[in-house]
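tokens incoming
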């Protein structure tokens, strides 16, 4: 079962989360049509992005969609992972060139230094005129050295955009996508620090650095093969952890026939009719879940009928 575990380090300004996407990650991959499976390098990147998106969404408890995108100038033009407020997630990627075996992040998306990472927060219930918030960072560090891992990119993003020291460990394969997040908390005002008054004496200022170093010793193999209890015990056996009830992320797609219908209306009657005349029907496939939506001539007619009217014969298809 896919799980995310949240925990606090008792008396220290540090929190953490550990996510393991198992059946939900396998379901996402199974939605790919035969022959269109992702190359292993891209599959693993998408798994890391999925784990990271779930971790970040659980961290901020945002009532809406958190969308993590990486786009650039390599053979992978776009990779997207999205996590909703209920920790459902989905992911997809567009690859237009051949990936060499073992290709890293720069080779996939940042060949000429034009790669970017964007995180968008899209509110579930938008107010009139409200726009999603988006932050964008390049796929290189402050000294323009290329960042080789997704975890490094996101750590850089959190520091630049949110001023939060963060340590991320991410790994994925065809069976599981997993991640560990460690983050510094503000010292003042945290209930977790009751009874700790002298920061200099007890070394609170160094707590995050020490714990992040411990987290950095976690190998990909350990993250992918060990259960959450074993990982936390091996890394932080000297620390007192307050752990919370695990939550269950799941794969889910937000596509619907109504959303596709709205998109077709946006294209306009003339363009949709051209496709209909050429192919006999309009078929739209969802890149995230693989579901196909088909609209025949009657369906298309219903799309462009003014509200309150139906085509002659009343044969409009109900949109769901």
């Amino acid at each position: 079962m896919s799980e995310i575990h949240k925990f606090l380090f008792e008396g220290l300004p540090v929190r953490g989360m550990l996510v393991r996407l198992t059946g939900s990650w396998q379901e996402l991959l199974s939605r790919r049509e035969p022959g269109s499976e992702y190359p292993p390098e891209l599959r693993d990147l998408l798994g890391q992005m999925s784990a990271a998106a779930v971790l970040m969404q659980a961290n901020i408890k945002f009532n809406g969609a958190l969308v993590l995108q990486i786009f650039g100038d390599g053979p992978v033009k776009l990779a997207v992972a999205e996590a909703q407020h209920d920790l459902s997630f989905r992911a997809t990627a567009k690859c237009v060139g051949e990936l060499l075996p073992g290709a890293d992040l720069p080779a996939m998306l940042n060949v000429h230094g034009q790669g970017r990472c964007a995180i968008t927060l899209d509110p579930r219930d938008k107010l009139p005129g409200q726009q999603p918030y988006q932050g964008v960072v390049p796929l290189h560090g402050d000294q323009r050295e290329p960042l080789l891992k997704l975890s490094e990119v996101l750590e850089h993003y959190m520091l630049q955009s949110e001023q939060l020291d963060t340590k991320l460990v991410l790994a994925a394969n065809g069976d599981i996508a997993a991640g560990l997040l460690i983050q510094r908390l503000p010292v003042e005002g945290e209930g977790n620090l009751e009874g700790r008054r002298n920061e200099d004496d007890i070394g609170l200022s160094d707590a995050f650095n020490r714990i992040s170093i411990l987290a950095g010793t976690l190998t990909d193999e350990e993250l992918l093969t060990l259960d959450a209890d074993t990982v936390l015990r091996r890394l932080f056996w000297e620390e007192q952890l307050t752990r919370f009830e695990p939550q269950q992320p799941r794969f889910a797609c937000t596509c619907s026939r109504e959303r596709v219908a709205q998109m077709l209306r946006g294209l306009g009657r003339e363009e949709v009719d051209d496709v209909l005349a050429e192919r006999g029907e309009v078929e739209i496939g969802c890149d995230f879940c693989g579901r196909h939506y088909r609209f025949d001539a009657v369906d298309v007619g219903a799309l462009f009928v003014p509200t309150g009217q139906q085509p002659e014969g009343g044969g409009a298809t109900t949109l769901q």
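note: The radius of gyration is 23 Å.
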